[in-house]
Amino acid sequence: MLERLFQFAGGRRDLVNLLLLGALLLVVMPLVLDSFRLNLAGKYLSFAFVAVGLVLCWGYGGILSLGQGIFFGLGGYLMAMFLKLESSGAELPDFMVWNSLESLPAFWQPFHSFGFTLLAIFVVPTLLAWLIGAAMFKRRVGGVYFAIITQALAWILSILFIGQQGLTGGINGITNFSTLLGWDLYSESAKLTLYYVNAALLIGVLLASRFILDSRLGKLLVAVRDKEDRVRFSGFDVSNFKIFVFCVAALFSAIGGAMFTLQVGLISPSLMGIVPSIEMVVFAAVGGRYSVIGAVYGTLLVSYGKTFLSENFPELWLYFIGALFIAVVMVFPNGLAGLVDNLRQRLRPRGRALPVTAVAEEARA
Fold this sequence. Notes:
With about 375 residues, the chain is mainly alpha-helical. Helices cover about 75% and strands about 0% of the residues. It has one domain.
């Protein structure tokens, strides 16, 4: 039984790391943080969904996407459409009235249904990722070119959402909603419940990531990252593996975006542009791009640092993000997870040293 549990979690060490993270998120943080800070932590954890997806996509798939804000924003907008229609009742949403729309656009109509909204959060961003991935990877577009293209797409989509004010709320996005199926989202009980739901979903995403990485598919992803031509000559269609992991990362991002909207109470184009997309890469890099659990710690650390600096030195936080990214690249390329592994190796008795932690399989947590 215990061995099966270890196998499901990816090994004894991964299970211990996951239990420690679960205890931190589900026990320690709710006990030591007040309601405001706990809601803030929930917001940070919604970004962690993106960072975990980037570990799969970038660390193990070798695909650096600088446009994950696209899928995070789409997930947030899809959830916000349902919440806005519920708060508006039989009336048109306020921003549509301000923009002289006389009836609800056809593509908004299905979002009266909560079930359809959940389905759309799963399907729409994943389908868009499949279209982008198929268009790029089938033509063997990768590396820095893929990163630049995804960054351009994030910029284009944010501009598109700003320009369509009557349909998307423009630069302000979709705001002014307060209930989910009649449940007051601003009540203390709702904030606490949403935090627990967010943390539980994140742990579920971590388990799903471990399942993928420990499967034959995960090993092929690493092989594609390290020796793409050799895998292709072995008869595999490399592009399909890349499309799959890119779609999984997009799905994780969309779930995070939906949870962000529920906890923060708004979604706007500023969350799907270039800057937030790069910040999401920094989260994964600081935590360790080979560690799905490290990505969660990296997100929490960088987000708290950003909040502290923006509260006390509002003009410095952008420099902090830039300096942190440079430090990660030049000083500790495997992030926090790599530092922890190095420390473990030093503390381990001689003769029992592990192979170099820079190897992805050893660096992952």
